[in-house]
Amino acid sequence: MRILTAAQTRQADQATIQEENSSSAALMERAATALTEWILARLSPPEADPTLVFCGPGNNGGDGLVVARQLHQAGFTVQVFALPAEGYSPDFDANRQRLPAGLALQTLSAAALPVIAPDALVVDALFGTGLSRPLTGLAAAVVQHLNQAPARVVAVDMPSGLLADASQPAASPVVRARHTVSFELPKLAFLLPQNAAYVGRWHTVPIGLSRQFLAEVETNMYFTDTALLAGRLPARDQFGHKGTYGHALLLAGSRGKIGAAVLAAQACLRSGVGLLTVRTPAVGYDILQTSAPEAMALTDPAPDFLSELPELTPYSAVGMGPGIDKAEETKHVLEQLLRHAKVPLVLDADALNLLGANPELLQLLPADTILTPHPKEFERLAGPARDDYHRLELLREFCRLHRCYTVLKGAHTCLGTPAGELYFNSTGNPGMATGGSGDVLTGILTALRAQHLPALDAALLGIYAHGRAGDLAARHTGQAGLIAGDLTRFIGPALQELTTPDTF
Ligand SMILES: NC(=O)C1=CN([C@@H]2O[C@H](COP(=O)(O)OP(=O)(O)OC[C@H]3O[C@@H](n4cnc5c(N)ncnc54)[C@H](OP(=O)(O)O)[C@@H]3O)[C@@H](O)[C@H]2O)[C@H](O)CC1
Ligand SMILES: [K+]
């Protein structure tokens, strides 16, 4: 699905209203009803605690008024408050009129902010996508009051004070929500680690925004879901043989890190590659032949680290990096690889650190190479970022400049493309923050590239399947108990889910 800016979200509202020939009040009723239902599915009145709804002057506040009315009608004990303002939005005013007699709108004042009991449910409807400047005065005081309260906060659409798609002004407070329930699509802000403490757990509820608008709106940001992946992974050919599915080469491992080569190899084998050869230093031979017998071992003459690039002609893709060393000889192998490879490349770990330390090598990067840095490795490649938004700008620029696909690993791993698009992944869990996870990803990506998938498809599918394998594995191991080896067992099922079914 697409990720829209705040301005595009407003356009989506307008397009929907026009298409349906309805009104903004009707759309507000629908959006707020979806939110009320989200709450009702989790809390029911007999066990419900006092509910306090805080409204701002715009349509976010209007949503709050609808939710307050509906929760009151559902039997909740509701109090509803509004910030004083010179003017309120028309739909705010309309919904103020619709508050039932037993539910009076109370105006907030700095001198008497309402007491919030620890067991209260707080609905934050102060500001949404219309936030236009830093919060000051009473609005800021109310946000700080909510943040000091021990109660659960559910934010309507956005935690108030947070911008949908840009950095916060320093010193402007933001609501720290337990849950953020947003309409139809996630906002960019939800996907960035720096906002996690404000957004809490985020959810989207469908509100029937115009399908046509959402399919046609110009954007360069996407949230990777199964719909976006449909048709990208073909089913295996009835008459296919191992030659059909490519021959991958992994350049991996050094003394003490042969496990990384093993994990990448197992992941590569589980991702459908026809043949796999693994180049490790001599120390890796017995280990690899024992723990990944399906792979061919092609050992380097050096005992402890990679020192020579093998002949590349047999291979349809090459992955380099898991567990390698930063020795001068290994740097030479990387340089030779960049100079001579005529097949797709995947670079990870110390292959990236070698690039970062020798930026002249970046000029040799073949087009459509996939790089898989974590934020620290990315910093070594592209320089330090001021914050998460700036890091995305650096990512776009780096991919454009070097015509490469860069997989910035994290909670919502972000793929940057040479065309300037950003794809945020939707699978995976914190259990995957464990040694070897990245080696598994390199194995998957190398296998998909070896099978002749285009770089974009391979990267999107590989990232998603890696996270999905983590989610499937965690059902058995729990998140804390998850180790990278568990991921390899679930790559097959994850890819199977994504495979285009044979249709009649
Ligand atoms: N499809 C949807 O997503 C739908 C969303 N809905 C809800 O509508 C809001 C957006 O509503 P909007 O009225 O555009 O904006 P807000 O309610 O967030 O805020 C606008 C008002 O707040 C004032 N404002 C802005 N910044 C500040 C500030 N720092 N301090 C004080 N006041 C501020 C602003 O005043 P201006 O002077 O800037 O005009 C406005 O008065 C969206 O988030 C959803 O909750 C719809 O309900 C339907 C579908
Ligand atoms: K809000």
Automatic annotation (TrEMBL):
YjeF N-terminal domain: residues covered: 9-215
Cofactor(s) it depends on: Mg(2+); K(+)
Binding site for AMP: K409, G410, A411, H412, T413, G438
Highest taxon listed in the record's lineage: Bacteria
An annotated Gene Ontology molecular function: metal ion binding
Keywords: ATP-binding, Isomerase, Lyase, Metal-binding, Multifunctional enzyme, NAD, NADP, Nucleotide-binding, Potassium
Signal sequence residues: none
Name of the protein: Bifunctional NAD(P)H-hydrate repair enzyme
